[in-house]
Amino acid sequence: MSRWARFLLYVLGVLALVWLGFGAWGVWKTMQAASPSTTPSAAQFETQRKRVAELEQQVATLTRSDQISRDANTDLQSTLAERDEEIAGLRADVAFYERFVGATAQRRGLTVHELKLQAQGEQAWHFTATLTQNLNRGAVNAGSLQLAVEGTQGGKLRRLAWADLRQQANAPGVAYSFKYFEQVEGDLVLPVGFSPTRVAVRLVPQRGAAVEQSFGWADAVAKPGAGGA
């Protein structure tokens, strides 16, 4: 091989190496451009941190809003139930008024329309007696009310008078004064070991004969208004 031919081969070899070098460099740049950096910059990290904080705040706000809505709905349901109960009570009152005051109401003299008993402790009780009369319309009926309780104690029958129930000798009765109806309230105390069975309500008007009605104790406690003359 001539000297010129060897020189030409050498030049071609150098050019081939240069070409391969540029090719490898191009491939490396292309791959670097296509692949994102695995290490975020400080600015990117701060942006992501702020975004996470914003999302957490939004979740907290939505959670709180949901709880507020639930509480408001619970309060609304409770209010509606109270209003329904109030309406039912008012309707019962209207029916009561019509029964005793209306033009077609049956005429009745002084009577105990209803007796309620509510426990206040071990032996103490609170009573509410609803008194009515529509026989003498417009006339004021005044007097006093006393209770007596029948039951057993130590295996024996016993009747507790008003003074026993009030734990006071010569205890005055509860005063009443009304035209058509009135609720009379008071308290009584039963002795230890006493089992009540019936309660008698005695009305002593300023004019006219006394009126006495008895009610089953359990009925007066469990079913207000139950009882008979």
Could you please say which CATH topology of the largest domain applies here?
Answer: Immunoglobulin-like
Compute the number of helices. Answer: 4
Quote the average pLDDT.
80
Strand content: 25-35%
Name the poorly predicted regions.
224-229
- Span between termini: 148 Å
Structural shape:
rod-shaped
The total beta strand count reads 8
Structural class label: alpha+beta
Provide the helix percentage: 40-55%
The ordered string of helix (H) and strand (E) elements is HHEEEEHEEEEH
**Which class of the largest domain in CATH terms?**
Mainly Beta
Q: Whole-number radius of gyration?
A: 48 Å
Q: Supply the CATH architecture of the largest domain.
A: Sandwich
Pfam family, one: DUF6776
Transmembrane segments: 7-28
InterPro entries: DUF6776 (IPR046703)
Keywords: Membrane, Transmembrane, Transmembrane helix
Q: Can you walk me through this structure?
A:
This protein is of the alpha+beta class and about 230 residues long. It has two domains: about 50-105; about 110-220, Sandwich (Immunoglobulin-like). Helices cover about 45% and strands about 30% of the residues. The chain is built from four helices and eight strands, in the order ααββββαββββα. Strand 3 and strand 4 form a beta hairpin. It is rod-shaped. It holds the Pfam family DUF6776. Keywords: Membrane, Transmembrane, Transmembrane helix. InterPro entries: DUF6776.
